[in-house]
Automatic annotation (TrEMBL):
Location of the DUF5110 domain: 761-832
Name this protein carries in UniProt: TIM-barrel domain-containing protein
InterPro entries: DUF5110 (IPR033403), Gal_mutarotase_sf_dom (IPR011013), GH (IPR017853), Glyco_hydro_31_C (IPR048395), Glyco_hydro_31_N_dom (IPR025887), Glyco_hydro_31_TIM (IPR000322), Glyco_hydro_b (IPR013780), Glycosyl_Hydrolase_31 (IPR051816)
Species in which this protein is naturally found: Streptomyces sanglieri
Record's keyword terms, sorted: Glycosidase, Hydrolase, Signal
Parts of the chain that traverse the membrane: none
Sequence ranges assigned to domain Glycoside hydrolase family 31 TIM barrel in this UniProt record: 512-644
Residues annotated as domain Glycosyl hydrolase family 31 C-terminal: 655-741
Metal-binding as UniProt keyword: no
Protein family membership: Belongs to the glycosyl hydrolase 31 family.
């Protein structure tokens, strides 16, 4: 993603030391002789509001605050506007304030233009920004105290000016209950001017609204909610003296009288799900809810939170953000869930600050509460939340293959090229034996395209799909889809405003492909909001290349799953810098993310400073072979990942998971070791190497048997593995005991050209375990009409440490879809310590051979590797409509 604007990270800490801020103030215009002095204002116990006015800008000036120059160089503020804001808050101002800091906003006279705002502290550190396309731009300086420098960049303006505003928010608390009425699942509540409403739904979801203005309404122009839950009319209310109770099917809402507070309890009305610690509190531009925190209560969610997945004792921000670094939250969502058995979606398109200290205080920058409360365990809550805002979309199978992005026409970084030159790169993927699912052949920032139908057809010959990205909308989507465009990437110059705007753009881009072809829309975007999981792959923006960046991305993508985001990723390596070792390390573990992409045309080598494209073979050996190894493994595991994608459309739970999701009763799953590893589905534990080392320490393995994927060594969890040998070609990777993993044949480089007459199951027998494979045509939307098939596999084996044989029952493939084969053979890889005495399929013995090479030639039979105890079985071709049994007899 080449961004020509929206780059808060580019204004480094030292930048502001040389930028002397200047702006024209409303209240105290400087004399002409002091034109370079920076106007200022102060917020304190006596002055609660400060406003100022900018000059009129005839046109846009620069695209970054780093280019503003000094005040002496710009005495008339012709390039950028500046204002110094001093905050001297009264004692206790930020102890419990809904807005959490000083709101600063700029609003321009002509709303179609675009000013960007950046705020720095006295040391030059950026503390807030608003660089989207919203009007007004607004941000909050958290717990402000001291002097701050506001820099406003006129990015895209036409004879326009803006007015600025900052204020100290003053808080008001809800008083005593003054009204309570209702029935049939809907109740009206009042505490003086504050009006509230509680609505109940059949899945025990509760919607609670409150407003001191007395207006209870949905957010304006919101499309977040796809389907309102079914109303629950069978509720009863009762007066318990100190509170009114409202009983639904499985919960009781308490409405306390003095003062008005709320608490949600289980059906016994004794076990609290959540309980307000204090009344609702609001200011001129915010409202917060305060909840008691359990002794061991943990919190997850918030969408994409760069560098973290667990939030107890942390402050979590949600809102429009283009900070691609650790601590950024550009794909955040106003949703969190708790291990106390509930989750909360704030139905809003405003920024929020969620403080998970004790008590828990969650606030949005609006004078209203509109919250949906879901009850159940973590996976249930994720399911209910995504039922409301949209389940994760079903990607085309090529979307789970690697993608490549470059600018081939008018690329200032690489010289003049043509769009058809993309075909040379796709040919190189084929020549180097590496999978490629799709290519973006432009970038929208002055890099357009030509010969689009020919480019699409050429990519299709290499089993890849054509993609485009945009910075300014989709005016030609019908013609482009006709030319073969099946992938869309949306950039911040268009969707950087976030919130509903980005969500609508995502929906539009997906629909643009689907309305003009039989394909599934496949969309990427870097800034989004609640509901984006239904339409797009989210990625964490333009990142620098460093071991630190590799490290913090691990919990980021695993944590996003806790908000129902099934596809969250980052560029392999980075966009602007390249190093062979870091690139290979990054590619290794990202091969276990569903979606990955390289940004090929913008990087320079970190040592030589020379341009260096980022296709995975360009570094030569040993890197080419290492990169191929993991891309080929990713390709073989596509039936596993594809099945997880289908499950996500039903459950809302994506493939990449923090250990705490699958092992909620294990405290170590929240520990420092588990933070930097993740599960790919329930069966693979991935512990990336994120430093310049060939030894990985602190690999936490939870309860169960775990087998090293490379060596076959087994571990009994819970345990921590230190001193794990991880040379550059080795990703620490473990497989859960009892797993059944479908795999395409070895050597597969494309979903389209694979040998469909063969399918593998990699089996780690332990007790009785089951697995259901999902298949469809991989590309069309016919699956939504039932054109798909499932195959159930059941493995019966002795428990860990016991002796005995293993029976594999492979059921018939039930269902049909275009391209389904009528028969196929099966490659079973059965892990164990000893060779069976015989292998029987149905009533016939399979022939034993002496090596894997002989087995490949024989067509069917079996072989046990004496060094590992792994038995490989290849069955004869079997009709897919018929089940069969394979027994490994001791």
């Amino acid at each position: 993603m080449r961004i020509l604007k929206k780059r808060p990270g580019q204004a480094a800490v030292g930048t502001l030391s040389v930028i002397v801020l200047a702006l024209t103030a409303l209240t105290a215009p400087a004399p002409r002789a002091q034109a370079a002095a920076t106007p200022s204002g102060t917020l304190d116990s006596t002055t609660k509001n400060v406003t100022w006015q900018s000059p009129v800008y005839a046109k846009g000036t620069v695209d970054s605050p780093a280019k503003c120059g000094t005040a002496a160089e710009d005495p008339e503020n012709a390039v950028c506007s500046r204002f110094d804001l001093t905050v001297d808050p009264p004692e206790g101002q930020w102890d419990d304030n809904p807005e959490g800091g000083v709101p600063v906003s700029i609003q321009w006279e002509t709303p179609t233009d675009d000013f960007d705002m950046y705020i720095y502290d006295s040391a030059g550190k950026q503390v807030a920004s608003s660089a989207g396309t919203a009007d007004p731009e607004s941000a909050v300086v958290p717990k402000a105290s001291g002097t701050y420098h506001v820099v406003v960049v006129p990015y895209d303006v036409h004879n326009n000016s803006f007015s600025g505003k900052a204020y100290l928010p003053e808080a008001t608390d809800a008083g005593n209950l003054t009204g309570f009425s209702g029935s049939h699942g809907r109740y009206e509540i009042a505490a003086g001017a504050l009006k509230a409403r509680a609505e109940f739904f059949t899945d025990d979801t509760l919607r609670l609204q409150a407003s001191p203005d007395g207006v209870l309404a949905d957010p304006k122009d919101s499309h977040m909610i796809r389907q309102q839950p079914t109303a629950q009319p069978h509720t009863k209310s009762f007066d318990a003296g100190t509170y009114y109770g409202i009983r639904s099917k499985g919960v009781v809402l308490r409405v306390y009288k003095k003062p008005l507070r709320f608490g949600l309890y289980r059906a016994d009305n004794r076990t609290a799900v959540w309980q307000e610690a204090d009344p609702l509190r609001w200011t001129g531009g915010g409202m917060r809810q305060s909840l008691k925190r359990g002794a061991d209560e943990q919190f997850f969610g918030g969408g994409e939170q760069n560098g973290s997945f667990s939030h107890r004792d942390r402050v979590m921000n949600v809102g429009n953000n283009t900070n691609w670094n650790e601590g950024g939250y550009n794909n955040s969502q106003p949703f969190y869930l708790s291990t106390a058995g509930y989750g909360v979606f704030r139905n809003t398109m405003t920024p929020g600050i969620y403080d998970f200290a004790s008590p828990v205080r969650t606030g949005q920058q609006e004078r209203r509460l509109d919250a949906y409360y879901f009850t159940g365990d973590t996976k249930t809550v994720i399911g209910k939340y995504t039922s409301l805002v949209g389940k994760p979309f079903m990607p085309p199978v090529y979307g789970l293959e690697p993608g490549s992005a470059d600018c081939y026409l008018h690329n200032a970084n690489r010289g003049e090229r043509h769009t058809l030159d993309a075909l040379k790169v796709s040919d190189s993927y084929v020549d180097n034996g590496m999978p490629l699912g799709w290519m973006l052949v432009n970038d929208g920032y002055g890099c357009g395209y030509e010969n689009l139908p020919e480019t699409g057809a050429g990519l299709n010959k290499n089993h890849a799909q054509l993609g485009l990205w945009t910075q300014n909308g989709l005016p030609d989507e019908a013609a482009e889809a006709k030319a073969g465009v099946r992938v869309r990437k949306l950039d911040v110059a268009w969707v950087g405003g976030g919130y509903g705007f980005a969500l609508d753009a995502c929906d539009q881009a997906k629909a643009g492909i689907e309305n003009n072809s039989d394909a599934r829309g496949f969309v990427w975007l870097p800034v989004s909001w609640a509901g984006a999981q239904r339409c797009g792959v989210l990625w964490s923006g333009d990142q620098s290349l460093s071991w630190d960046f590799i490290r913090w991305q691990i919990p980021t993508y695993a944590g996003a799953t806790m908000s129902g985001i099934a596809y969250n990723t980052g560029d392999v390596g980075s966009i602007y810098r390249h190093d062979p070792e870091m690139y290979s390390r990054d590619l290794q573990w990202k091969a276990f993310l569903p979606a990955i992409m390289t940004m090929d045309g913008w990087a320079s080598d970190i040592t030589t400073k020379q341009p260096h494209d980022q296709q995975p073979w360009l570094d030569g050996e040993p890197y080419t072979s290492i990169n191929r190894k993991y891309l080929m493994l990713k390709e073989r595991l596509l039936p596993y990942m594809y099945t997880l994608s289908k499950e996500a459309t039903r459950t809302g739970v994506g493939a990449v998971r923090p250990l705490a999701l699958e092992y909620p009763d294990d405290p170590a799953a929240l520990g420092p070791d588990a933070k930097y590893e993740f599960l790919a589905g329930p069966d693979f534990l991935v512990a990336p190497v994120y430093s310049d080392t060939d030894v990985r320490n602190g690999i936490y393995l939870p309860k169960g048997t775990w087998t090293d994927y490379w060596t076959g060594k087994t571990y009994q969890g819970p345990t921590t593995v230190n001193g794990y040998k991880a040379p550059l070609d080795t990703l620490p990777l473990f497989v859960r005991g009892g797993s059944i993993v479908p795999m395409w044949p070895e050597g597969t480089v494309s979903w389209e050209s694979r040998d469909r007459t063969r399918l593998g199951y990699d089996i780690h027998p332990q007790g009785t375990t089951e697995y259901t494979l999902y298949e469809d045509d991989g590309v069309t939307r016919k699956f939504a009409e039932g054109a798909s098939a499932t195959q159930h596999v059941r493995v019966q084996a002795p428990a860990h440490g016991k002796q005995g044989g293993t029976t594999v029952r492979i059921g018939a493939s039930v269902g049909s879809y275009r391209g389904k084969v009528s028969a196929r053979s099966y490659d079973l890889t059965v892990h164990g310590e000893h060779a069976p005495s015989q292998v029987v399929m149905g009533h016939s013995r399979l022939h034993r051979v002496n090596s894997a090479a002989e087995l490949a030639k024989a067509g069917s039979g079996w072989f046990t590797d004496p060094a590992t105890g792994v038995t490989e079985v290849r069955t004869p071709s079997v009709p897919t409509g018929r089940g069969f049994t394979v027994e490994l007899r001791k």
